[in-house]
Design a protein that fits this description.
Layout: H1 18-23, E1 38-44, E2 50-56, H2 58-62, E3 66-70, E4 81-82, E5 86-87, E6 89-90, E7 96-97, E8 103-109, H3 112-120, E9 123-128, H4 135-138, E10 152-153, E11 162-169, E12 172-181, E13 191-199, E14 211-217, E15 220-225, H5 230-241, E16 248-252, H6 268-278, E17 282-285, H7 288-294, E18 299-308, E19 314-326, H8 332-342, E20 351-360, H9 374-392, H10 396-403, H11 422-433, E21 444-455, E22 462-468, E23 474-477, H12 487-499, E24 506-508, E25 511-512, H13 527-554, E26 561-564, E27 567-570, E28 573-576, H14 577-585, E29 592-598, E30 616-628, E31 635-645, H15 652-671, E32 677-678, E33 681-682, E34 701-707, H16 729-741, H17 752-762
Parallel strand pairs: 1-17, 15-16, 19-20, 23-24, 31-34
Antiparallel strand pairs: 1-8, 2-7, 2-9, 3-8, 4-6, 5-10, 11-12, 12-20, 13-18, 14-15, 14-17, 16-25, 18-19, 21-30, 22-23, 22-29, 26-27, 27-28, 30-31, 32-33
Helix pairs in contact: 5-6, 8-9, 9-16, 12-13, 15-16
Length: 763
Amino acid sequence: MTGERLRTIGSAQPRRDGIGKVTGNARFAADVELPGMLHAKVLRSPHAHARVVRIDTSKAARLAGVHHVATRDDFAGMQPVYGWLIKDQPVLAIDKVRYVGDMIAAVAADDEATAYRALDLIDVDYELLPDLQSIEAALEADAPALFEEPPIGFVNTYGQGASAEKDPRKNVCYRFNYRTGDASVFGGCDHIFEDTFTFSRMQHYFLEPYVAVAQWQGDQVEVWSATQSPFLNRKELARVFQHPEEKITVNVLYVGGGYGAKTGCKTEPIAVLLARITARPVRLAFTMEEQLLTNTQHAAVLKLRTGVMNDGTLVARQSEILLNAGAYSDASPLVAEKAGYRIPGSYRWRHIDTQVDCVLTNQAPAGAFRGFGGTQAAWASESQIDMIARRLGIDPYALRMKNLKDLGEAFVPGESAIDSDLRLGLDLICERLDYQNRPKRRGHGIGLSVVLKDGGGVNKAAHAMVKATTNGGIIVSSATVELGQGAHTALTSMAAEVLNCEAGRVTFAAISTGSTPWEQGTFASSGTTIMGRAVVAAAAQLKEKVLAFAAEDLGCSPDQLILEDWTVRKGNEVIPLAPMIMKNFGGPGFEFTGTGYYKPRVPDDHSAPLETPVDFWEIGWGGAEVEVDQQTGQVRVLKLVVSSDFGRIVHHGACRGQDEGSAMMGLGQALFETVLYDGGRPANGTPLSYRVPLSTDLPGEFISISQEQGHGRGPFGTKGGGEGGILPVASAIANAIDDAVGVRITDLPITPEKVLAALDKQK
């Protein structure tokens, strides 16, 4: 399975971000200190839904050390709302608060302690409104509208079979539909199975909280932010403050985890607002508790109606998905697209009909989360596939093998082809689980799952620049953020490969929107494949310029020369480049620069449902072996096996780490993690009360298989990775529990109480 490794790349190469993080020298946005810097804290709503009648900041403003208390009264000349497609989340509450934790006021003070004291002195009068704490409550005919007037926003452009609508009904901010085939095929099915699944709200739980440092000097704005999307943040800040984009600079250092949550504005608008008013640098860093109130994953209800034949042939799937968007739209419309598009799973269908609604509730906003709609879709789809197999008396492995799409087969009409052998990957999982020879005894079971997600983003473009100094130091410049995934290692390795030099020569430049080439953001597993193409193109252009320069100096053709570790080889003669450059350009020397650009192909017929064909398919194969204690309902994962296909691996350690970390998030989703609400207030909204997997919860045996099937369309045959590992875990564990004790859990997380209740019902 393992293909040839790139010459400069492999497990022996150190991670670019490793030494700084291990030694503590790596700098994050929270480490930024500027002369005269103030510290900000925000006042949050104690109510889930209320009209803000009056805000009195006079006492807080008089407190020694307080420089300003910002409220809705400071929004003159601004467009003080932000969001992805729909601009509905205010910088600070304007007319209403819509969830416990909604931000009302912000204090800039000499230190955090003073800012906290000032928050206690702010008086707010509220008019309480009905509290909508569930999807069902928000969709009731007599439910109040969270927004009396629809916020500004737009609907994405789609290709064949896909469509969407903004504000299709009260408290639904976005609806996505996808249909292909003929619904009449349901009439010819031997069986039609209808099942409902619920998906829990999970928190990103990264170690570095949201943080931004901002300063406003004259007409120049500079921000240091823990963000995955510096250019998108710059654009949103320019719109909010009605300020020219070119006069706003967003800088990004290392980011301590994001998993999607650090895409889009969070702390930045408030920090910039206070910096403008006080004429001082301002630092706003949320606490871990505030992190849990800022952004979450979408809870969901998924209803599947699936038609099959007696022999297990899958025919048709109709899906209705309700996403709990929370109080504001955030990335919900885009998550709806992905959940709806991915719900058919890895299988061949004659008819697909999907509708996804983003429902607004009085809970914390939901946005981008690792897997981006794929986790919700995978949970329901792969659970029901297993249920169907057991109902028909067919082995779940055999049902999957019968219906999985082939390598090279289009996902749906107009879409790109599947670029992994799905059956090969499933067999690898089964082999490590000894699936065919597994013991059949009560309380012990094995479950499988095969999931895919479209990767690389929709219509996502990337720019990169590669420079070479006089002495052959290579500098890669791109806006791909290092979140811990090893992106900078991958991109510098690719540049080294193209330029035929040692990886140690290559440095990744600091990210700043004032000098770094534009890029949409670091998400959708796009760093290696999308930005990788831009980096490779930039390095190739640089190489061409260097060889042209050397050829002119040597009086020969460029194709007579080979670039090798900052020398040129002409026949048997090796000529160092540095002296040649100094001879031509003098003492200061010279820098060669190459630029690269990549954007996925846009077909003239726009037949791809999501506007452009998928760049690559990220596959998550998973299998779990469990033991269920029938007296307590406790589930113990004896063995967990996950696998992804990276096409061709750039750095083995990074790929393995991505899969394994992702799978552990899937384990948390399956058995432990959920944001619980008591009325409108989070019941486990602290780092200590929010349950994540502990070391004692790890599987007895954990196996990850990094495949190199070789069909990737990225540089050197690569495909993106990092999200595949989370996708199959929850459904594989649920399927294993059913195999062990014959009960089906359709509600995440799978707690001992739920298992025990199902066992009692079974008796």
